[in-house]
């Protein structure tokens, strides 16, 4: 099998060499661990980076399928745009009542566009189209900040240089006004941004896995994102009694 296991540590981490199909190698590993038992395979959970990986993994299992093969449960965790699909799969692991729903993408853009227009620099007019364009950029920035879990205090600690051009200082001032207003608006609506909600779901998944380790094989395969919440899940999975992390091309 084209997999290398890291020795002498409790964490179960495997590396798939470059040039070897990760989906094929992972499917072979799972089938080997389950002794090709269809019922045992159905108890396996696979965490994968995105929907494309889910499709590739499904095809890998089908190519190796024997009559009556049942597929493992597969969950995509890496793509920000997958919040709607990841939510229903991970919510049952958590206390649903304490996690607010995600704001719809269109509603989020409209909210940000309204805040951009409301907090525009003094004496400047802004068209609806320009407000919407800036709202899209703001949404992307907010997602990046939330994925990296950078809080408002990091912005407050930024030292503005005296010789910084005035429009940059103005933009900084707008951000320091818009970001808290955006947070407050979401809280009032009892909603969350997509990346923030995903962070909560993933952290609760990590907690649930530690407190109630699964009895079936639990594999995280091909997830290489540096997002902190995802990294915590991988660290948890690697140390589970039945957990395995499979990474591409890592020198162990």
What oligomeric assembly is this protein in?
single chain
Radius of gyration: 22 Å
Shape assignment: elongated
Runs in which pLDDT lies below 50 for 5 or more consecutive residues are 81-87
Order of helices and strands: EEHHEHEHHHHHHEHE
Number of helices: 10
Please provide the count of β strands.
Answer: 6
In this structure, how is the largest beta sheet organized? Answer: 6 strands, mixed
How large is the share of residues in beta strands? 5-15%
Broad structural category: alpha/beta
Name the helicity range.
40-55%
Query: Main sheet: which strands, in order across?
Result: 1-2-6-5-3-4
Mean pLDDT: 82
N-C termini distance = 16 Å
SSE layout and pairing:
Layout: E1 4-5, E2 13-16, H1 22-33, H2 38-41, E3 45-48, H3 51-63, E4 73-76, H4 83-90, H5 105-118, H6 128-147, H7 152-156, H8 166-189, H9 194-211, E5 218-221, H10 228-238, E6 243-248
Parallel strand pairs: 2-6, 3-4, 3-5, 5-6
Antiparallel strand pairs: 1-2
Helix pairs in contact: 1-3, 4-9, 5-6, 5-8, 6-9, 9-10
Describe the structure concisely.
With 252 residues, the chain is an alpha/beta fold. It has helices spanning 22-33, 38-41, 51-63, 83-90, 105-118, 128-147, 152-156, 166-189, 194-211, 228-238, and strands at residues 4-5, 13-16, 45-48, 73-76, 218-221, 243-248.
Structure write-up:
- The protein has 252 residues and is of the alpha/beta class.
- The protein is 51% helix and 10% strand.
- It is built from ten helices and six strands, in the order E-E-H-H-E-H-E-H-H-H-H-H-H-E-H-E.
- Strands 1-2-6-5-3-4 form a six-stranded mixed β-sheet, sandwiched between helices.
- A hairpin with a 7-residue loop joins strand 1 and strand 2.
- Helix 1 packs across helix 3, helix 5 crosses helix 8 and helix 9 runs parallel beside helix 10.
- It is elongated, with a radius of gyration of 22 Å.
- The protein starts with a strand and ends with a strand.
- About 3% of the residues have low confidence.
């Amino acid at each position: 099998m084209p997999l290398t296991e890291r020795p002498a540590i409790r964490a179960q981490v495997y590396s798939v060499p470059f040039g070897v199909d990760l989906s094929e190698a992972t499917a072979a590993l799972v089938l080997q661990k389950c002794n090709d038992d269809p019922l045992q395979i159905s108890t396996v959970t696979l965490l994968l980076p995105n929907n494309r990986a889910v499709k590739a993994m499904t095809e890998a299992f089908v190519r190796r399928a024997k009559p009556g093969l049942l597929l493992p449960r597969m969950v995509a965790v890496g793509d920000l745009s997958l919040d709607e699909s990841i939510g229903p799969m991970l919510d049952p692991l958590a206390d649903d009542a304490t996690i607010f729903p995600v704001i719809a993408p269109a509603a989020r853009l409209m909210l940000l566009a309204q805040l951009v227009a409301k907090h525009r620099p003094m004496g400047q007019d802004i068209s609806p189209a320009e407000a919407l364009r800036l709202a899209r950029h703001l949404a992307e920035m907010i997602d990046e900040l939330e994925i990296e879990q950078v809080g408002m205090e990091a912005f407050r600690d930024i030292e503005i240089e005296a010789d910084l051009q005035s429009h940059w200082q103005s933009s900084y001032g707008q951000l320091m006004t818009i970001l808290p207003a955006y947070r407050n608006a979401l809280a009032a609506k009892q909603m969350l941004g997509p990346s923030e909600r995903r962070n909560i779901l993933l952290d609760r998944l990590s907690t649930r896995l530690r407190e109630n380790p699964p009895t079936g094989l639990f594999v995280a395969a091909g997830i290489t994102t540096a997002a902190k919440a995802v990294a915590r899940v991988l660290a948890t999975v690697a140390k589970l009694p039945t957990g395995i992390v499979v990474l591409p091309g890592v020198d162990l």
